[in-house]
Q: What sequence folds into this?
């Protein structure tokens, strides 16, 4: 069994029958009382965010999670379909389980977290940074590199990303999938 000493960010634990990911945690120690461990938890199988406090050394219940590489195939009314790269088995997950669905493009490799106890997918994570083609953007002008002014640009997945004025249609850009922000132009 694990205790609060094993707490870390990203750990998935079971609290009151639901699964939660540890977003942040810390320890409070007062002069007379025993130390307390607190954690901010985000729901894996629900949309709740909660804060929980335990006495130091108390038992927690971590869930064994496997991360497997999958390839994005398509989405339809039933959800987003991915294929296991090793076994070619397909899974379909609802949109709320996908990290940033607006940046998914056909054939893209993603990481799927699978519950080790039930073999059910829990979440789909895109790579931190992805390269996308700008399909539409207002034309930039020569010398527009001096300011940090941004303009909207549509990428190949249909998402809109704010890019610097010098980025033009047909160029490749690197986007942070977690925040949706422009990172750099790809040569």
A:
């Amino acid at each position: 069994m694990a205790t609060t000493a094993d707490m870390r960010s990203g750990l998935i634990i079971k609290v009151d029958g639901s699964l939660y990911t540890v977003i942040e945690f810390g320890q409070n120690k007062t002069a007379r009382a025993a130390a307390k461990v607190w954690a901010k938890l985000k729901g894996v199988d629900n949309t709740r965010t909660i804060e929980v406090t335990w006495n130091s050394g108390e038992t927690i219940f971590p869930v064994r999670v496997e991360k497997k590489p999958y390839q994005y195939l398509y989405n339809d009314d039933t959800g987003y379909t991915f294929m296991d790269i090793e076994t070619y088995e397909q899974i379909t997950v609802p949109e709320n389980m996908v990290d940033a669905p607006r940046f998914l493009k056909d054939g893209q490799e993603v990481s799927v977290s699978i519950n080790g106890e039930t073999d059910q997918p829990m979440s789909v994570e895109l790579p931190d940074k992805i390269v996308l083609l700008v399909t539409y953007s207002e034309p930039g002008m020569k010398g527009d590199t001096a300011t940090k002014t941004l303009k909207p640009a549509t990428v190949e997945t249909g998402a809109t990303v704010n890019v610097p004025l010098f980025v033009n249609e047909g160029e490749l850009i690197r986007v942070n999938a977690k925040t949706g922000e422009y990172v750099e132009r790809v040569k």
About this structure: The chain has a mean pLDDT of 89. The first strand starts at residue 2 and ends at 3. The domain at 2-60 is CATH 2.30.30.30 (SH3 type barrels.).
